[in-house]
Amino acid sequence: MEEKQICPWCQTEITWDEEIGPESHCPHCENELSGYRTMNIGIGDGGESDDLDEEDMDLPEWNDTDDDSEADWAAEQEGYIGATRSTLAAQGVIQEITEAQYEVPECPNCREYMLEAGTQVLGGEGFVPTAPEVIGEPILPSPFRIVWYVCPSCFATSSQLSASDREYMMGKLSERE
To answer: In which domain of life is the source organism classified (predicted)?
Structure first.
């Protein structure tokens, strides 16, 4: 006889054989079936009232201190950063910063949005520009600016040519003698 189960993540019916036993992961969305937390509230079960008190529920206790350093350290050793009040507060600030930025590139490592960290001026005496034969002059002005971005999740950095220097470069590439 076959048993049926519904995946709580994708709502797909999972049919499993009695000899093999229940699935531990959904074959459709590949999420862990036992990791989903549910709460039965008894709607439509004959009119019985299930008044749930906080005492009856198995809720995690909220720690009012920001001293979660041991938990954070343990979580970082597992490869992820735990959510504390400070990290949740930082997420709100990160969102406000990215909404105000002119450009918001994605991190090449983890695909989170990156924060603009500042600009760096390159060029001058230490910079020797290349002048391609096709146009006969350098494609970048000297000095030029680089905009630096930092990922608030994995702390990788990335850089791009500033918007005005990109326009200069595209102007040089589009005009020909």
So the answer is: Bacteria
How far apart are the C-alpha atoms of 2 and 9, rounded to whole Å?
Answer: 21
Token readout for 171 is 């102007």
Token digits for 124? Answer: 């001058």
Q: CB–CB of 140/167 below 8 Å?
A: no
CA atoms of 113 and 107, how far apart (whole Å): 6
Structure tokens at 42: 């008894």
Contact 51, 39 (CB under 8 A): no
The type of residue at 160 is: Q
Q: What is the pLDDT of residues 33-86, one digit of tens each?
A: 776 565 556 665 555 544 555 455 555 555 545 455 555 555 555 555 556 777
Closest CA to 147 of 111, 122, 112: 122
Residue 3 pLDDT grade (very low, low, confident, very high; cuts 50, 70, 90): low
The rounded Cα 36 to chain-centroid distance in angstroms is: 21
Buried-exposed string 44-66: b where 16+ CB fall within 10 A, e elsewhere: eeeeeeeeeeeeeeeeeeeeeee
Q: How many residues does the chain have?
A: 177
Please count the CA atoms within 13 angstroms of the CA of 65 that sit on its side-chain side.
5
Could you tell me the CA-to-CA distances from 95 to 82, 91, 176 in Å, in that order? 18, 6, 43
